[in-house]
Amino acid sequence: MSEQAVALTIRDLRLDVAQNGHDIVDEITLHIARGEVFGLVGESGSGKTTVGLAVLGHARKGVAIHSGSILIEGSNLLELEGRAMRTARGRLVSYVPQDPGTALNPALRIGAQVMEVLQTHGFGADKAERRDRVQEVFSDVLLPSTPEFLRRYPHQLSGGQQQRVGLAMAFATRPAVIVLDEPTTGLDVSTQAHVLETVRTLAAKHGVAALYVTHDLAVVASLADRVGVMYAGRIVEQGATAEIFANPAHPYTRYLVAAAPEMGSDRQLVGLSGRAPSPGKRPTGCAFALRCEVATAECHDSFPVVTTVGTAHEVRCFHAFAVPDRTAQRGAAAAGNQASADVALSLRAVNASYTGHQVVHDVSFDIARGECVALVGESGSGKSTLSRSIGGLHREWTGDILLGGSALARSSRDRPVQQRLSIQYVFQNPYSSLHPRRSVADSIARPLAIAGVDGHLIGREVDRMLERVSLNASYGSRFPDQLSGGERQRVAIARALVSKPEVLICDEVTSALDVLVQATIIELLVDLQRDLGLAMLFVTHNLPLVRSIAQRVAVMADGKIVELGTAADTLSDPQQEYTKRLLADTPSIPEFR
């Protein structure tokens, strides 16, 4: 690739913990051409966002840029200071954060926010030219450029529209490089598809080099031209997207690909035990050796050098391609579990409203014991409102919800203790669902105390549940801030199951987790469903995940169930246009395999 074609070059970048000098990321070397999208993937804590922020010449509090160079259009960003650095941020490189709701100023109209970016960076000869640019960039991101729309505030927009405004601000000054930090996390598949298409089109149209940071492999497969895989602060493999997914060389990459769910397959997802070592605790050799099944003595002694294993395909591993292809592993996924003929939960003509505004319309279906029904649909379709109504967390509903044939009161407060314990809820965000001042043991024990279980039995039950969710008893003394996201979600599941419920509601329980942790949580839920005979309602917008856990699928749109059938039939041969559109908008990676 010619020097003129390269927009961003990172060489031997290292960032440290400022207090002790332990490396957070090290030996980061990559380049991105104009108009190219480079996907940077890896599990949480691998250093992806740290690298993305460094491209802006920024390091978070407590982090120091130790060495290396970041060249954009020939300028080394790490040598700039003061006004020169502020000018570079926005003119040379711009940033799209994960949460548009917090990135936009709630007190400013969206048109004024984009205009402010142009004024700050001196874009355009006068106000009229900048106004024309605002209208042009809103059209580029497929948003209306009418005066009425530009005068809206962020809270008057949907999540997808907010993210497009963020893209408009990032592309407004026509930068050479744009960093996108998980900009579609939390968006439903249709909104995500539109945002990704906007990124792809704008990068190609304006010759912008895009660094796309994510843990969603399917997004990378559908968007990126090349991929870099990070583990414990280093890039362990990089190459063309098709090559990486079709022929992964590093054992860690193979685990990542195997953990990504496929729309057309009910194969068992393969998780990975353990976690990557944190800064200051990384071994001398390959950091992945502690979790690698083919590691040898040399892996523990030294870190592998970069090896070329194909056309522009590089890997840092002594045993490239040595691990069996994990994508071929298949097992008895949840779709093979046998549901009982006994109905655990029945919904009959359920309607739900918010202050009189109806959002759920005439919903009826059953869930048998031992069966998992996936409830899917776009954001705002009514999925969470329905699930919260079942759990008694939303009171404004009519119709009948029956637990084992017995009608449930509208509010959980009006239900007998045994009914409350028989329906348990696992929430979306593992970081906010646990009380920060309660130990793990106290959180899990709480339902037992409510049920009146003898105190001397509670400790034994807590230890048993921790073992059940693959955490040992020592975790009982820990607090939530001492756990990873996956560990917190396991604790939340243990808390939900300790009261031996009949029905488990899982509301987007994997949306905040990377693919390896997601696979581990799904494995756990499948095992628990089979062993305990749980009836499960699995609320999600991750359609590829459905085949791995659910026997049936209920598709929800505008508060109504528009399609209900087996997971295999609904995902392979949908009958409704809405379901077909959801499937068409869902990114996937099987085409590379």
Give an account of the 3D structure:
33% of the residues lie in helices and 24% in strands. It contains 21 helices and 22 strands. The strands form four sheets. An eight-stranded mixed β-sheet has the order 6-7-8-3-9-10-12-11, sandwiched between helices. The protein starts with 5 loop residues before the first strand and ends in an 8-residue tail after the last helix. The longest helix is centred in the N-terminal third of the chain and has 18 residues, at 189-206. 49% of the residues are buried. α7 packs parallel to α8 (189-206) and α15 (440-451) crosses α16 (455-468). The radius of gyration is 25 Å and the shape is globular. It is α/β, with parallel strands linked by helices. The model is unreliable at 328-336 (pLDDT under 50).
